[in-house]
Every structure is written in structure tokens, then in C-alpha cells.
Write a structure and sequence with these properties.
Blueprint: H1 2-21, E1 26-38, E2 41-50, E3 53-59, E4 64-67, H2 78-102, E5 112-124, E6 127-136, E7 139-145, E8 148-151, H3 156-166, H4 170-194, H5 196-199, E9 206-213, E10 219-229, E11 235-240, E12 243-244, E13 249-250, E14 254-255, E15 261-270, E16 277-282, E17 291-294
Antiparallel strand pairs: 1-2, 1-5, 2-3, 3-4, 5-6, 6-7, 7-8, 9-10, 10-15, 11-12, 11-16, 13-15, 14-15, 16-17
This protein binds 2-acetamido-2-deoxy-beta-D-glucopyranose (NAG) (5 copies).
GO molecular function: endogenous lipid antigen binding; exogenous lipid antigen binding; lipopeptide binding
Pfam family, one: MHC_I_3
Subcellular location: Cell membrane; Endosome membrane
């Protein structure tokens, strides 16, 4: 009997262990941008983000949350969302009213923009960092810290005045604190669990090469394009044999509309040295089957012929994209 109890205890323990092994870094935040054109006109945009992936939008006409994925509701009930929508709606209406009423007193000059970002970060399952920051005209203005509004140095006296004003409202501070410290971590964890399949998917990249002569020189600009991959980490290199080529320029990894990523890696090279160079792509979705594309093999050199004399070229590379 004791043995059985121990065994089931062990199962329970190992179960919770497994959950803890997945020490994900989870960041959920909402962004709210309010643009004030004049005393009577303001526009609100809202969105929710799990890491770099947008999960929610805000329909300011109807004052409702837009769920961008089937799993965007996390594990919250419809009642809970209706409560949140009502809260956001009231908050936004009040915010716009108060700001328009106080704009001249606070020396906000039309047109201006306020950006609010708020959320929580769970570096592991039992720690949470919550935050709320406000920017005015793109510059730090104030933040919420430990139950009070704190002006940013960049906000100067104006931010101090706003903080003095809103620090008087205990109810708002309690609501904000509850949202970022309690609701946010629960929501973020549930969202992460609900979206796990989507977040852990593997999508293979496509790669292609393009090149163009650099005007006024004997050099070529070779570009290795890699697109449509997920997740974001990727290794792309211009190689000759075993050697990584020095002097490559790696672009930023940019988002595609479908949630996958795009990257290009550029190499300047003397035209006569281009043959034998190849672009190598390594990505988790490919296993150990790296993509290898040789310059000049599948993209014939004649593509670079400025007279474009050969129109019968048939390459699997697609068109030569000038950069
Ligand atoms: C306020 O700004 C909006 C949007 O730019 C404009 O259409 C409207 O005419 C402006 N109203 C006033 C009173 O200036
Ligand atoms: C997380 O919880 C475990 C066990 O409860 C504890 O040992 C550990 O120190 C906690 N980690 C942090 C960062 O608080
Ligand atoms: C937050 O405020 C409480 C009470 O006002 C105080 O005891 C605590 O030390 C503060 N924490 C930080 C990190 O400032
Ligand atoms: C949702 O999931 C989170 C994390 O697993 C949990 O803490 C929370 O209690 C769940 N339910 C609700 C309604 O938040
Ligand atoms: C290009 O080559 C492929 C395979 O060799 C062939 O299937 C395709 O029909 C060709 N396209 C053109 C436009 O010649």
C-alpha cells in the first residue's frame, strides 16, 4: 500500500516536473496608440502580442476585442472577455475625454500621439515582471511602478503634473495593478498553452539568389533571399567550400504577412570570383538537410547581361530581383 502511494506520488511529481521543465520565456503585452488631431477628433488603435506575434486587435467602432487566432481566447470565458471589453471601452472613452479636456492645461499640443504599452513577462513559471509605460510623441513619458505613477525624466515637468493628478485615483491604480499583475500572467500562460501547437510549428524556408553588377565597379552584389520560415532563428551564410565569406551584410529578419519570416544576406564580390560561391541555409525545420544554392549554377550569369540578350533562360530561381 505504501509502495502504491509512493508510486502515485512519484507520478504526480514527475508530472509537475514535466510542466516545469518547459521553462518558457513568455511575454504578453498590449499596445494602445491614441492619436489626437484636434479638440474634437481622436483615433484609437489597440493590439495584443504574444512575443512578436500579434494575437489580438481592437475594433474601436464596436469597442470589442478581435481574436486573430483560434486560440487567442486563451482559457478565459466569454464572460471574462465581456468584462474586459467593458473595462477597456470605459477606460478609452474616459481617457479621450480627460485628455481633450486637460490638453491645454497639460500643454499637449495638437496633433499629438500617446502610446501605452502594458503587459507581463514570465521568464519562468514562478516569476512575473509586469509593466505599463506611456510615451508622448514617441518619447518616454511615465510608467506605473509599485502602485504609483512615476514620471520619466524625459517627460519633464509635464509628466510630473500628470502623475500628481492621476496618483490621486486609488481605484485606477488598483485596477491597473490587478490587470498587469494578476490577469495578465494568467492570460499569458493560458494563451501560451493554447497556442503551443501554432507557436511550435516548423515551416521550411524557400531560398533563392539574385545578383546585380555594382555600377562603376567590377563587383557584383549577390543576394541570398530566404523566406517563409518559422520559427525565427536561422543561419544563412555565403560560403566557398568550407569557408564562410567575410564581409557579408545580414539584413534584419523581417515578418511576412502570414507570420513567417524573411531574411536576406548580401555579399559584394569581384565578378570573376563569383563562381563557386554558394549560399547555405540552416534552419530547425530542415533538420540536417541544409539548403545549398550555388551562384551561377541555377542562376546563369547571363541574367546579369545588361543587354538582356538571352530571353530563353529557364531557371528554377525565379526572376533576378534588383536590389
Ligand atoms: C479635426 O481633425 C479631423 C481629422 O484630421 C478633421 O477632419 C476635422 O475637420 C478637424 N476638426 C476641427 C474642428 O479642426
Ligand atoms: C521558483 O520556485 C522554486 C520552487 O518553488 C524555487 O526554488 C525557485 O527559487 C523559484 N524561482 C524564482 C526565480 O523565484
Ligand atoms: C512597494 O511599495 C511598498 C509599500 O508602499 C513598499 O513596502 C515596497 O518596498 C515597495 N517596493 C519597491 C520595489 O519599491
Ligand atoms: C488559465 O491558465 C492559467 C495558466 O495555466 C491558470 O493560472 C488560470 O487559472 C487558468 N484559468 C483562468 C480562468 O485564468
Ligand atoms: C523550365 O524548366 C522546367 C524543368 O526543366 C520545365 O518543367 C518548365 O516547363 C520550363 N519552363 C519554361 C518556361 O521553359
Amino acid at each position: 500500500m505504501l509502495f502504491l502511494q509512493l508510486a502515485s506520488l512519484a507520478v504526480l511529481l514527475s508530472g509537475s516536473d514535466n510542466a516545469d521543465v518547459i521553462q518558457e520565456h513568455i511575454l504578453f503585452h498590449v499596445i494602445q496608440i491614441s492619436s489626437f488631431a484636434n479638440q474634437s477628433w481622436a483615433k484609437i488603435q489597440g493590439s495584443g502580442w504574444l512575443g512578436e506575434l500579434q494575437t489580438h486587435g481592437w475594433d474601436s467602432e464596436s469597442g470589442t476585442i478581435i481574436f486573430l487566432h483560434t486560440w487567442s481566447k486563451s482559457n478565459f470565458s466569454n464572460e471574462e472577455f465581456m468584462g474586459l471589453e467593458l473595462l477597456f471601452r470605459v477606460y478609452l472613452i474616459r481617457l479621450i475625454q480627460e485628455i481633450q479636456d486637460c490638453a491645454s492645461q497639460l500643454q499637449f499640443e495638437y496633433p499629438f500621439e500617446l502610446q501605452v504599452t502594458a503587459g507581463c513577462e514570465l521568464p519562468s513559471r514562478n516569476t512575473t515582471k509586469s509593466f505599463l509605460q506611456v510615451a508622448y510623441q514617441g518619447t518616454d513619458f511615465l510608467s506605473f511602478q509599485n502602485m504609483s505613477w512615476v514620471p520619466s525624466p524625459e517627460g519633464e515637468i509635464r509628466a510630473q503634473r500628470v502623475c500628481d493628478l492621476i496618483n490621486q485615483y486609488e481605484g485606477i491604480k488598483e485596477t491597473v495593478s490587478k490587470l498587469i499583475r494578476n490577469v495578465c500572467p494568467r492570460f499569458a500562460l493560458g494563451l501560451f498553452d493554447a497556442g503551443k501547437m501554432y507557436l511550435q510549428r516548423q515551416v521550411k524556408p524557400e531560398a533563392w539568389l539574385s545578383g546585380s553588377p555594382i555600377l562603376g565597379s567590377s563587383q557584383l552584389l549577390l543576394v541570398c533571399h530566404v523566406s517563409g520560415f518559422y520559427p525565427k532563428p536561422i543561419w544563412v551564410m555565403w560560403m566557398r567550400g568550407e569557408r564562410e565569406q567575410p564581409g557579408i551584410q545580414r539584413g534584419d529578419v523581417l515578418p511576412n504577412v502570414d507570420g513567417t519570416w524573411y531574411l536576406r544576406v548580401i555579399l559584394n564580390v569581384e565578378a570573376e570570383e563569383a563562381a563557386g560561391l554558394f549560399c547555405q541555409v540552416r534552419h530547425s525545420s530542415l533538420g540536417d538537410q541544409d539548403i545549398i544554392l550555388y551562384w551561377g549554377k541555377t542562376s546563369p550569369f547571363r541574367e546579369l547581361d545588361p543587354t538582356g540578350s538571352d530571353s530563353t533562360s529557364n531557371t528554377s530561381d525565379g526572376p533576378c530581383i534588383m536590389v
